[in-house]
Amino acid sequence: MTGSDGLSRASDVHPALRTPFCELAGVDVPIVQTGMGWVAGPRLVAATAEAGALGILASATMTFDQLERAIDEVRTRTERPFGVNLRTDVDDVGRRVDLMIDHGVRVASFAQAPNPALVSRCKEAGLVVMPTVGARRHAEKVAGWGVDAVIAQGAEGGGHTGAVPTTLLAPSVVDAVGDRVAVVAAGGFFDGRGLVAALAYGSVGIAMGTRFLLTKESRVPDAVKERYLATPVTGTVVSTAIDGAPQRVIRTDLVDRLERAPWVGRLPRALANAHAFRRETGATLPALLAEGRAMRRSADLSWPQVIMAANAPMMTKAALVDGRADAGVLPTGQVVGSIDELPTVAELIARIVSEASAVLWRLTGTGGRGSVGTT
Ligand SMILES: Cc1cc2nc3c(=O)[nH]c(=O)nc-3n(C[C@H](O)[C@H](O)[C@H](O)COP(=O)(O)O)c2cc1C
Questions:
Q1: Which atom of ligand 1 is nearest to the CA of 153?
Q2: CATH 3.20.20.70 boundaries in the chain
Q3: Model pTM?
Q4: Distances in Å between the alpha carbon of 356 and those of 48, 152, 238, 349, 372?
Q5: Does 209 sit in the ligand 1 pocket, CB within 6 Å?
Q6: Fold of the domain spanning 10-220+340-363
Q7: Going by CA atoms, what residue is nearest to atom 15 of ligand 1?
Q8: Which of 84, 191, 286, 341 is the most buried (most CB within 10 A)?
């Protein structure tokens, strides 16, 4: 199992950590590194897979060709299973699914609800289907389509997020669909205590974004990681001013200015960003317009909101790729305030497994078998 660095000995790992998710995803430990746009590249994903957990490549911010190269690169770094995160509102989503099938990707993670046809196509090909949901009714909807698992992301989570906190969402999603679907809890997790708490709610594991962003292998520039590390638990805000949908980000002067500006004031920036994103991803104008129309229908957005939605990817890229923390947007979970160092992925996963095992041994009255002291 984990622990080439000796942080966790296999004999000390509590058997309760071998959950049904391990079998489903083909991993050793029930921990997911989520598919964060501009962050979750091949290096992070392969490091996670090698450490025994499930790494998910972010493809929402990649062209089709970039995704193909990224999958190939993960394959050269590891033979272990991994996943790919997809947007469902892009016109080439079917082609991307075919690519994943051809390359033997194990898990299809969806940022928004997929549709029944897409779920069937993935499942027929043997992909594990795992959309992210932020509300109980969304979990019920996708469970009805036959998905294998859901990531139930509570309000404290990073990026686009719902209104219900993890402590309420996880048990309610487990109650609603846990008999049919593997529920992975997300939003606010960073250590072994959280993993045990998630298991207590009936989840089969945890998914973490911000915690993996703040590791040595994440591709985010060091200066930007420092900005995250300096952010307190109260230093985030959920804003709709970036792309029309509630998104949790670090509260910066730029975000405050966007919040104050009327949408007409934000329009020139949105249009410029839409153009830049089109160049970046190779999307054609008709494809973007079709996507905009689909978004209007599915998310009930006005055209100004759709245009603003083009903002998010480029503003996030300015910070997370180009390192311009003040000129861009920094999606984050509130958990950022509980993180103060940048471990390697192997250290992080070994530590979480070790802490969770120690807690479980203590709670089950068999204390002393854990490889670390109780937390
Ligand atoms: C920088 C960043 C980018 C993200 N991008 C995506 C994305 O492209 N697709 C997606 O499904 N979720 C995305 N998310 C949400 C995460 O996948 C995950 O569900 C969330 O971070 C969990 O909460 P936590 O940050 O408290 O761990 C993003 C989150 C962050 C922090």
A1: 19
A2: 10-220+340-363
A3: 0.90
A4: 18, 20, 30, 11, 10
A5: yes
A6: TIM Barrel (3.20.20)
A7: 159
A8: 84
